[in-house]
Amino acid sequence: MRVLHVLPVASLALLLCLWASPTIATSYVLCPSADETITEESPCPTECYSDTQCESNASLCCPTSNCGRQCLAGVTVPHTPPVVACLYADPDTVGTCAEFCSSDSDCVVDGEICCPNSCGHTCTSGTPVTPICRVILESRNGTQPRIGEYVPQCDGEGRFAEAQCHGSTGYCWCVRPDTGEPVGTAISRQPQCNNCSHNGQVNYPGDTFPNDCNTCTCFEDGSFACTEIGCGH
């Protein structure tokens, strides 16, 4: 996990200082784009309905170009986890004078980091720092990427660009701009990233959202479909 430490410079002012550890990227496995799958000639061949019906060497049940579903090997794409910060306690406040941790590896609860509490250190949930993408790039200090390393692309506001590409694999995919979480499928060219706007709420491919008493699902082309339950109004 990427960690930032926030140091006190005044009673209410905060100064961000970057932790020296490297960015650790997790990964997601996405279906290949239906535009790049080759299927049988028969209309809508469906050999699966969920990933649990696929064997391990073809672990994902993916949509195909002619409206069916097929077990296919997924495409692994990287994802950089959120940057979090320690908020130092007010130096005039006395905390617990004990060292419950000395590094983040001492924290056993997922998402917790080792932070000072004025009079010791304890494991606590970090505070997300935004915009994440800009912080990640600035932390590199101009360092050139290593061979095979994925470096996220940012938009003008410091958020993740909706379309991300990994030059070493040749694959591109769409993400949620605020978190960089991959959505939809992976494709070997620049993708057209769409979202579904409904009642002022932006939803991304794969998201479900309520519409009165019904549930809607967002698709990669920006359309969405809803259940058709009578709501009894």
Sheet having the most strands: 4 strands, mixed
| Radius of gyration, CA atoms, in whole angstroms | 22 Å
- Low-confidence region ranges: 1-24
Give the ordered list of helices and strands: EEEEEEEEEEHEEEEEEEE
Query: What count of helical segments does DSSP give?
Result: 1
- Percent strand equals 25-35%
- Principal-axes shape call: globular
Q: Which percent bin holds the helix content?
A: under 10%
How many angstroms separate the termini? 48 Å
Task: Tell me the total number of β-strands.
Answer: 18
**How are strands sequenced across the largest beta sheet?**
2-1-7-10
InterPro entries: Elafin-like_sf, Pacifastin_dom, Pacifastin_dom_sf, Thyroglobulin_1, Thyroglobulin_1_sf, WAP_dom
GO molecular function, one term: peptidase inhibitor activity
Subcellular location: Secreted
Protein name: Equistatin
Fold and architecture overview:
This is Equistatin. Its main location: secreted. It is found in: Secreted. The chain is built from one helix and 18 strands. It has one helix at 132-139, and strands spanning 3-8, 14-18, 26-30, 60-63, 69-72, 75-79, 84-87, 112-116, 121-125, 127-128, 163-166, 171-175, 182-187, 196-198, 201-203, 208-211, 214-218, 224-226. The protein is mainly beta.
